[in-house]
Specification:
With about 600 residues, the chain is of the alpha+beta class. It is built from 22 helices and 25 strands. The chain has three domains: about 200 residues, 2-Layer Sandwich (Heat Shock Protein 90); about 130 residues, Ribosomal Protein S5, domain 2 (2-Layer Sandwich), CATH 3.30.230; about 220 residues, Ribosomal Protein S8, Chain: A, domain 1, CATH 3.30.1370.100. The radius of gyration is 32 Å and the shape is elongated.
Length: about 600
């Protein structure tokens, strides 16, 4: 109540013009939210200036010192003071606010920083022997002075928010602010692979500690992009990603995205850029989620770096003070491009699975983790003089081969099959895993997970044509449900009919199942219905009908797949391998788990000390 009374007391019907200093400090609150915001604005200015190398330094999480140095075209002496005035910019003329082809354009960043900190700009342009320096402290601009400088610009910002100390209380720890700075620089570096970046923490003085360094990439755009993403996201990502290149109605989509089996438990590794500008656009992230909906369960996220390019008039970048959000003129086209572009690229990857699965498998086999174990192994190895190389047939595989020969699989057939990508089936172990031999290694296949994906893809194909064929049950099955579950199923009975599942209300809360999908063969109708109900409840949070239907279809596919514990004949196993090779997305099951693990012979030999 006191606050309300105070607000009424202080309210005056008098309109006043704010001072320029106060206006700049208010603007700074929008543009320079934290040290990483200041660095983002300064680095973007360097990119706009045509820099080929940008060096960034900071101290105490950017609170006490930020320095951004570039080798761009610089600022002329007679324009330095103007650069510190609000709404002064060299990047637009104000006649067309949609045709913006630079990062900065409002002319607010430098005066905002000068209003809340101690700012110094030193710059030199070509054909001038001496640079110029200007300083501003809390909004007070000093005279321009000559200063020795290389071609380009150095911006130094000290004691951020010293003029507005209340803002300092809202900053996080130095470690947290440093993390935000690193994230901002890496995002900007992703979008500019031909520019070199160096980020240093100089808190301890001297040259400081290099946090991130990326030299300019060479080659074509995709080579440069792949090299830069490898530097930032790691070698594992580069081994387990695929290239994206799509176009629709003048809007292009490029970049790299991870295989579904290479996913993370958070969406923080999803990077989206529009005309080179890093953005956090909800519509684009929603489209990304929809593209992977068939391949990843809830709570798993792909790692992606997507670049959307379009005419500048087709996107409004002036809808957020920090330019972190954009608005497309035709959002439907962009969403469709992202979904179809990613799905098409995923389909082209076929049965490919993440190599990190094999790395983890090999890691679990290693027996010599400690140096002590390695020494003992090397000592035993040297005492034995040498280790003979046993013939594979002598250690048990001859029996397997003979067993398979007894099942209509001749050596000639085997030699032909081994040349396929997933090789030739050699054995089934634990009545669930197929052991296949390739020309340069072995493959272990989860028969249930693999066949589940194959059935799902067949069902989707049938659905896209004319619906799933059904089979009429000789004896319809009556299933007792709760009133809520019965009503939930009957709401989508028309859709279920397209799936080949015919149900009707049988009075009260009971339903009767009259038809089941023909592709499933003999199926437990009650378990199938209960699984569909579980899926409906799990996907109740989404408003996208297609996502719900695809999820239900995935559950149905599970009932038609080869179960764990079923003994398979050699020809059945090889038929499964051949179908996997020609079926898109067969490298992962419907829940994003791998369907097979590939181990190269060279890696296996390392485990046994052969190399």
């Amino acid at each position: 109540m006191e606050l309300i009374n105070q607000r009424i007391k202080n309210s005056q019907p008098i309109i006043k013009q704010l001072s320029e200093a106060a206006a700049n400090r208010i603007a700074a609150g929008e543009v320079v939210e934290r040290p990483s915001s200041a660095i983002k604005e300064l680095v973007e200015n360097s990119v706009d200036a045509g820099a080929s190398r940008i060096d960034i330094s900071y101290s105490d999480g950017g609170k006490t010192l930020i320095v951004v140095k570039d080798d761009g075209h610089g600022i002329a002496e007679n324009q330095l003071q103007l650069a510190l005035s609000r709404h002064a910019t060299s990047k637009i003329d104000g006649s067309d606010l949609l045709n913006i082809n630079t990062f900065g354009f409002r002319g607010e960043a430098l005066p905002s920083m000068g209003a809340v900190g101690r700012l110094t700009i030193t710059s030199r342009i070509k054909n001038v022997t001496m640079g110029s320096k200007i300083t501003v402290n809390g909004g007070l601009i000093n005279k321009i002075r000559p200063a020795p400088s290389t071609i380009g610009t150095v911006v130094e910002l000290r004691d951020l928010f010293h003029a507005t100390p209340a803002r300092l209380k809202f900053l996080r720890t130095d470690r947290s602010e440093s993390g935000a700075i690193s994230d901002v620089v890496k995002r900007l570096a992703m979008a500019e692979p031909f520019i070199g970046f160096t980020l240093r923490d100089v808190t301890s003085g001297g040259e400081g500690r290099i946090i991130f360094r990326a030299d300019p990439e060479t080659g074509d755009l995709f080579d440069a992009m792949h090299g830069r993403l490898t530097k930032i996201l790691g070698v594992d990502f580069s081994k387990n990603c695929f290239r994206i290149e799509a176009e629709r109605e003048g809007i292009s989509l490029t970049g790299y995205a991870s295989l579904p089996t290479y996913s993370r438990g958070s969406s923080i590794f999803q990077y989206v850029f529009v005309n080179g500008r890093p953005v956090k656009d909800k519509n684009l992230l929603s489209a990304l989620r929809a593209a992977y909906s068939d391949f990843l369960p809830n709570g798993r996220y792909p790692v992606v770096a997507l670049f959307v390019e379009c005419d500048f008039e087709r996107v409004d970048v002036n809808v957020h003070p920090a330019k972190a959000e954009v608005r497309f003129r035709e959002p439907g086209i962009v969403r469709g491009l992202v979904v179809s572009g990613l799905r098409h690229a995923l389909a082209e990857e076929g049965h490919r699975s993440s190599s990190t699965i094999a790395d983890a498998t090999l890691g679990s086999f290693k027996k010599f983790e400690s140096s002590h174990d390695k020494e003992n192994y090397q000592m035993n190895y040297s005492r034995s003089g040498s280790i003979s190389k046993p013939n594979i047939d002598q250690v048990g595989f001859l029996e397997l081969q003979n067993d398979f020969s007894a099942r209509n699989q001749s050596e000639e057939v085997f030699d032909e099959l081994i040349s396929n990508k997933l090789g030739a089936a050699r054995a089934q172990v634990h009545e669930n895993y197929i052991l296949s031999q390739t020309s340069d290694g072995i493959i272990i296949v989860d028969q249930h997970a693999a066949h589940e994906r194959l059935v799902y893809e067949r069902l989707k194909k049938q659905m896209s044509l004319n619906g799933v064929s059904s089979q009429t049950l000789l004896i319809p099955e009556i299933i007792e449900l709760s009133e809520q579950d019965s009503a939930l199923l009957m709401e989508i009975s028309v859709e279920l009919d397209r799936f080949g599942l015919g149900i009707e209300n049988f009075g009260g809360s009971s339903i009767i199942v009259r038809e089941t999908p023909a592709i499933l063969g003999e199926v437990n109708s009650k378990n199938l219905i209960l699984d569909i109900l579980d899926e409906l409840k799990e996907t109740s949070h989404t408003n996208l009908v297609k996502e719900k239907l695809d999820a239900i279809l995935s559950r149905i596919a599970c009932h038609g797949s080869i179960r764990s514990g079923r003994i398979m004949r050699a020809e059945e196993m090889n038929a499964l391998l051949r179908e996997m090779e020609v079926t898109p997305h067969s490298g992962q099951c419907n829940h994003g788990r791998p369907t097979y693990v590939e181990l190269k012979l060279s890696d296996i030999e390392k485990l046994f000390g052969r190399t």
